[in-house]
């Protein structure tokens, strides 16, 4: 397992280099002069020259890349043009909010998704099964930005039960006060993943339940609860873990939209505002950061998968 | 006139069993027709496409005509079946015209992704070697980004806009098709009927497009059907963020985003385009699931 982990870690290096090259090229694939785009048509010539020099645009492309990546590794991620602040600290602070949101959404999605899937599978073709699977299909197809708005209108504006936007009441930042603000964006983000997990759990459970060892367990006189939870569920979980892993990309993507709707101060809204303001250092920093995190999270998911299923060969 | 005795043996056998030989295509069509849910999905899609294509004949309003005297009318108002938005534009009209853009973008993005994905998958799977190794590494890198994030990164480079957003989401889709096709090609290229074609002197092109591609088509068709829906969500999501179609264009994501500030007084401005997206995506999913079952009944639970 250790050998496998090290091998997978080494395999990440070329991927991360590739990711960094792509992120680097964002600035260079832009049609036109990036400095002019960033500063606008009213920019003075010396200001343009200064920015070009600051971004290293006056160097050959490969030199620019090496200079850029060397700075990234040293922790110098450049300065945001629009916000006039260092990019790395900004990205780190904002990512904390995104992490809280996505982890909460993942927790909600896995808990309710598994529960719904198990109920559906154990009571196949019952009213519950049909209702839950109908809801899962609907949840699966709902655009996250629309669901976010609907929840905001209903629970925030009409009923007034939960805060409409933001992350904490002004002046307070405790975790308890954040929780109330987390519920609406968290659930909006979770629904699609929850639906996918429920569907996957159901079909995976149904497949496992038909197998001989389950019949044996029942024949031994074990209670249905023991059969379901300790025999069937454990094997049924393996494909579900893959789905959860694949859904992390979906959650990080959806977070961008949810953050905009609920004014959640995360990295997604920072990224989108950066693009709209054509603030390239900020855009590159946010995208590089999220992609790197995503690569590592995927590695962890793969390792968990290998732990759960001893049949996976480490070679 | 044929008599019972000089009929070919095979026909007699199938006739005796009451089985008529059917072509695979007809069999798939028969299975799909029996799937009521999939048929419903298909019908809704046909209606949506017809409504958007015929939009100019169905409504007399201009989708962009501002009428400040009739702002924020609720659905059911006289003359405006689905009400008006914050600029007094007729909602029904904008929804119909918006359908043209959203559905067209969905189909176009899938077509582009499919075209390049199939091409890359065929070539890399068939020729293997350096081209394959390089392409697969590149695809690994593309897949190292969460899907929407990659699209956002591409838009960051190209600049916001409807066309750029469509290019971005198409590029994001390419690796998925390339992988599906490559996998099938890898398994097919070693089979005897391909070897036989080679022995007969068929060109690579002929083998690829006439003998391999048709066998790789069913997973692609299913993926593409489901994908049109996701592409519509992705494109309208980009517009919602301000990265895709720009106001005042009648596009579902733009409309949704435009109504954001009027949720308290006129929630229908945002909620109606969202429902339109939902209905279309749901229909593509129902049809796609039905197609999967029809193409490969073994997968059906």
**Sheet with the most strands of chain A?**
none
Shape of chain A: globular
Q: What is the class of the domain at 90-266 in chain A in the CATH system?
A: Mainly Alpha
| Poorly predicted regions of chain B | 1-5, 7-12
> Taking Cα atoms only, what radius of gyration of chain A do you get, to the nearest Å?
24 Å
Described by strand count, sense and barrel closure, the largest sheet of chain B is: none
CATH topology of chain B: MetI-like fold
Write down the overall geometry of chain B: globular
Task: Please give the most extensive interface between any two protein chains, plus how many residues each contributes.
Answer: A-B, 53 and 43 residues
State the secondary-structure class of chain A.
mainly alpha
Label the CATH architecture of chain B.
Orthogonal Bundle
CATH superfamily of the domain at 90-266 in chain A: MetI-like
Q: Would you mind describing this structure in some detail?
A:
- The complex is a heterodimer of chains A (315) and B (301).
- Chain A is mostly helical and 315 residues long.
- Chain A has helices spanning 2-29, 34-39, 45-54, 61-74, 87-122, 127-141, 144-158, 175-209, 212-219, 224-261, 267-276, 280-308.
- In chain A, helix 6 (127-141) crosses helix 8 (175-209), helix 10 (224-261) runs parallel beside helix 11 and helix 10 (224-261) packs antiparallel against helix 12.
- The longest helix of chain A is centred in the last third of the chain and has 38 residues, at 224-261.
- The mean pLDDT of chain A is 87.
- The longest helix of chain B is centred in the middle third of the chain and has 37 residues, at 91-127.
- Chain B has helices at 9-17, 24-34, 36-53, 55-58, 91-127, 129-143, 147-158, 162-188, 192-199, 204-240, 252-258, 268-295.
- Chain B is mainly α.
- The model of chain B is unreliable at 1-5 and 7-12 (pLDDT under 50).
- Chain B has 12 helices and no strands.
- In chain B, 71% of the residues lie in helices and 0% in strands.
- The radius of gyration of chain B is 24 Å and the shape is globular.
- The interface between A and B is large, with 53 and 43 residues.
